[in-house]
Design a protein that fits this description.
The chain is an alpha/beta fold and 346 residues long. The protein folds into 2 domains: 135 residues, Rossmann fold (3-Layer(aba) Sandwich); 179 residues, Glycogen Phosphorylase B (Rossmann fold, 3-Layer(aba) Sandwich), CATH 3.40.50. It has 13 helices and 12 strands. Helix 7 crosses helix 10, helix 8 packs across helix 13 and helix 10 crosses helix 11. The longest helix has 18 residues. The chain is globular, with a radius of gyration of 21 Å.
C-alpha cells in the first residue's frame, strides 16, 4: 500500500448511486490507515450524504447536487470550493466525464483514477479497472493496496447515535418473532424481484415479523405489498427512515432479503444475514455481499442474462424470466440457512 506523508489533504470523489457510495468506505478506511493524522473529505451527492457523515474516517463533505442542477455554474461553484481547500491528493472511484473534469480542475497535484475512466489522461496515477473483481477490490487498487487472499474484504463502518437506536427500537415487535427486513425496490425495474408478495406470504405463514424498507420512491410498491396484512405481522417503513436509520434497523433485525441494491451493502456493515436476489444482473459484476452470513440467489442459464450492468426500465425481451422463474422457496430456504449458521456461530 502507498504510504502517505504528513500534512496532506485528501479528496475522494464519489457521486454515483447509494450502493457505490457505501462500497467506497473501505477505500476511505485504508486511506485513513495510511494517513492517520490527515484530512479526508468527500465530494458526493445529497442522496449519499449520510453514508459519509456517519463514517468515522471522513472529516468533511462537499455536496454536489448534479441531478438537480446540471449547469456549468453549479459545476464551477463546486470546483471553486475544491480549489479553495487546496487538496494535495485526489482519488476518484467514479469514472464519469464530470468527475474527471472536476479532478482536472481541482488544483491537486496528485490525482488517482481508473485507466478506463472517461478522460483518464487527467489522472497521473491510473489503476487498472478490472471487471473480474469486486468493486471494493477495484477501489482499493486506487491506493496501491496489495491484496492478500481475502484481505480486501473490509466492511463499511458507521457510527450510530443512541437516539437513532432508540427510535428504531420503537418499530420492533413486542413479540418474540424473528424480524425479517425486505427491500423490494430498485431504481431499475429489471432488478426488482417480482414475486416478493409470495415471499411475504410465506414468511408470515412461518411466523416471522416482516418490515419493508426503501426510499421515498419505493413507498407505492411497499404499500401495495402491505395490503391485507395487520401491523402485528408486517409494517412498511419505506420513505420513513433516513439512510443511517435504515442501517440501525438492520442492526436490530434478524435477516435481510433484498434486490441487488444498496441495502445489501448496509447489511454487510451490520453483520446481518443477507440474501441478495439477482434478477437481470449477476454477481460477477462485482457488487455481491461478502460478509460471513450472506448468500446470493439467482435464476441462471438464460441466454439473455445479464442484459446490462444496471438493469433496465423494462425487460428487453418482454418476458422477465430471470425474475418470474426464481422460486420464492429458494430465497426463504437460503435465509433460514443463514439464520441457523449465525445461531451456531454464537
Amino acid at each position: 500500500m502507498e504510504i502517505l506523508n504528513g500534512g496532506e489533504k485528501i479528496l475522494v470523489i464519489q457521486t454515483a448511486f447509494l450502493g457505490d457510495a457505501i462500497l467506497t468506505l473501505p477505500l476511505i478506511r485504508k486511506l485513513k490507515d495510511s494517513f492517520p493524522d490527515g484530512v479526508i473529505d468527500v465530494l458526493t451527492i445529497p442522496q449519499s450524504k449520510q453514508i459519509f457523515e456517519y463514517s468515522p474516517y471522513v472529516n468533511d463533505l462537499i455536496l454536489y447536487d448534479k441531478r438537480r442542477d446540471k449547469s456549468l455554474k453549479a459545476l464551477f461553484r463546486v470546483v471553486k470550493e475544491i480549489r479553495n481547500r487546496e487538496y494535495t491528493r485526489l482519488y476518484s472511484p467514479h469514472r464519469s466525464f464530470r468527475s474527471s473534469l472536476i479532478a482536472l480542475m481541482s488544483g491537486s497535484q496528485f490525482r488517482a483514477g481508473f485507466d478506463k475512466a472517461v478522460m483518464s489522461f487527467v489522472y497521473n496515477y491510473q489503476a487498472e479497472y478490472n471487471n473480474a473483481v469486486h468493486e471494493v477490490q477495484r477501489n482499493l487498487r486506487l491506493i496501491g493496496f496489495a491484496e492478500n487472499d481475502d484481505s480486501w474484504k473490509i466492511f463499511p463502518e458507521f457510527v450510530i447515535e443512541e437516539k437513532v437506536l432508540v427510535k428504531i427500537k420503537s418499530f420492533l415487535p413486542s413479540s418474540e418473532k424473528k424480524v425479517i427486513c425486505l427491500a423490494p425496490g430498485s431504481v431499475w425495474y429489471t432488478k426488482r424481484y417480482p414475486r416478493f408478495d409470495e415471499v411475504i406470504k410465506k414468511l408470515i405463514e412461518e411466523n416471522y415479523f416482516v418490515i419493508l424498507i426503501g426510499g421515498s420512491e419505493d413507498v407505492s410498491l411497499c404499500d401495495s405489498l402491505s395490503e391485507g396484512y395487520v401491523e402485528t405481522d408486517l409494517i412498511s417503513l419505506a420513505g420513513k427512515l433516513t439512510v443511517v436509520e435504515s442501517v440501525a434497523l438492520l442492526m436490530n433485525c434478524d435477516a435481510l432479503i433484498s434486490n441487488d441494491s444498496a441495502p445489501v451493502h448496509m447489511a454487510m456493515a451490520t453483520d446481518t444475514p443477507v440474501v441478495d436476489v439477482y434478477c437481470s444482473t449477476i454477481p460477477d459484476f462485482g457488487f455481491y455481499p461478502y460478509s460471513r452470513f450472506s448468500s446470493v440467489v439467482s435464476y441462471d442459464g438464460l441466454e439473455c442474462k445479464p442484459c446490462g450492468i444496471h438493469g433496465h426500465k423494462s425487460c428487453p425481451i418482454k418476458t422477465f424470466d430471470c425474475g418470474h422463474l426464481l422460486d420464492p422457496d429458494i430465497i426463504i430456504h437460503e435465509m433460514e440457512r443463514l439464520l441457523i449458521q449465525k445461531q451456531k456461530s454464537n
